[in-house]
Amino acid sequence: MKFFIDTANLDQIREAMDLGILDGVTTNPSLMAKEGIRGDENIRRHYVEICQIVEGDVSAEVIATDFEGMIREGEALAALHPQIVVKIPMIKDGVKAIKYLSSKGIKTNCTLVFSAGQAILAAKAGATYVSPFIGRLDDISTEGVELVAQIVDIYRYYDFETQVLAASIRHTMHIIQCAEAGADVVTCPLQPILGLLNHPLTDSGLEKFLADHKKA
Ligand code: E4P
């Protein structure tokens, strides 16, 4: 399972990278705005900076919602750096744009996916990644992780190459549940990743080992 970090914060990306477990980055317009990155030029420069920090795929989202606009933006984003994956929303023109961009060899991430039917369309269109948003489903009293498992099963059944990228992950248990469900990738903020490190028995065990070593 690959680990992507879901942020546009360069310090957090560096920290995850330093840990040695980072495989890529996902961003979205809200995450860019949170870091105060505004204006096309600054946004493009920021994507390139992210690509220079990490070695894997970096998802950059289009703002246009019409086919022509998404193609134009997608091609411009992809031209910024070979690591860029064009993030396209799951709407009718988005499916067409994914089909077009994939046929040109441009990697895509189909975002805002909330049902198995949407995930089937994304795979049929040739998306590199499909992003089911599990936290947002949990927010409306629906089991988000079950959608991840359902998509994994369907894709395996038909040998779809689209990778299941579990998104909208809010806590450490989500990561473990997505791993159990067979997600190819999880993308989440730094904190849930660091949360995986924690166990009280590790802390007390280490404390005792060090105390015993001192006594010896
Ligand atoms: C995924 O690519 C999205 O950027 C992200 O995971 C959305 O997460 P949120 O629901 O916590 O905003």
Structure, explained:
The chain is of the alpha/beta class and 216 residues long. It is 55% helix and 17% strand. The chain has helices at residues 10-19, 29-34, 40-53, 67-80, 92-103, 116-125, 134-139, 144-158, 172-181, 190-195, 200-215; strands at residues 2-6, 24-26, 57-61, 84-89, 108-113, 129-132, 163-166, 185-188. It has an eight-stranded parallel beta barrel, surrounded by seven helices. Helix 5 (92-103) runs parallel beside helix 6 (116-125) and helix 6 crosses helix 8. It starts with a strand and ends with a helix. Bound molecules: erythose-4-phosphate. Erythose-4-phosphate binds next to helix 7. Erythose-4-phosphate (E4P) is lined by residues 6, 26, 28, 111, 131, 133, 135-136, 167-168, 187.
Topology record:
Elements: E1 2-6, H1 10-19, E2 24-26, H2 29-34, H3 40-53, E3 57-61, H4 67-80, E4 84-89, H5 92-103, E5 108-113, H6 116-125, E6 129-132, H7 134-139, H8 144-158, E7 163-166, H9 172-181, E8 185-188, H10 190-195, H11 200-215
Parallel strand pairs: 1-2, 1-8, 2-3, 3-4, 4-5, 5-6, 6-7, 7-8
The structure holds erythose-4-phosphate (E4P).
